[in-house]
Amino acid sequence: MEFSEEAKREIEKNLGEIVRNINVDGKERAEIVKELRSTYYEAAEGEARARGADTVSAADARAAKASISSPRETAECFMKSYASGLKRAGFWSRLVAFIIDNIILCALVMVVVLPVFVYMLLLGMPLWDSTSNDAWFNSLSTLNAIVVLIFGAASALSAMIIVFGYYILLEGHFGYTIGKYILGLRVLKTDGTKIGYRESILRNLSKYINNLIVLDTLIMLIFFYKEKQRGFDRIANTMVIHVRR
Predict the structure, then answer these.
(1) Who wins on pLDDT, 236 or 81?
(2) How would you classify the pairing of strands 2-3 and 55-56?
(3) Burial of 138 (0-12, 13-18, 19+ CB in 10 A)
(4) How far is CA 156 from CA 5, 171, 176, in A?
(5) Are residues 188 and 107 in the same domain?
(6) Where are the beta strands (DSSP E) in the chain?
(7) Residue 76 structural domain
(8) Model-level pTM?
């Protein structure tokens, strides 16, 4: 049966929505896409036959999509079947990603803090004598004092948002940070599906509680080395995998 160009575009669009949620690479991804394409084409052809048509239209492709399942549900179904075969990331690749992320974090914090710091230096703030800071601030004009307070508070708040939001927001939305992306890593639930903000918050708590990340990592190396999960990964039911082989 012939497929219209609109039908083909609709099917490829549906495939694209599914593939974006499939966190495997290489041969496995190609096999999944091939199977999905065949399923969609057969379903769309069935819709066209049901209405007695000789050509599959875009409406048939949309009807086929509705009869199968949502792209996210389809992707989750495939990921669950592949979960046991996913290659989990070990200590060293995760450590390198962590170092890269912290370098990026420091750079981002410097971007928001440095302008205010330079401005305060230009106003004569003592650099090495912290005991003179109160006297320096009291010597400022009212306008300069207000500017320092407002922009100082804004930069401090921005720095806190960056530090606390970097891991949680990036992993909760994309499943990876910049460091993990560079190393070809991704965070998933242990059943192979995408994590959300809840899992991201739980697994990253140890990064924000003193030096708990060190203990959390030792737990992985001592007790969960085979599973390659930190203690807070176990709590959040998450894992870090290689998406590039």
Answers:
(1) 236
(2) parallel
(3) exposed
(4) 54, 23, 25
(5) yes
(6) 2-3, 55-56, 185-189, 238-242
(7) 2-85
(8) 0.73
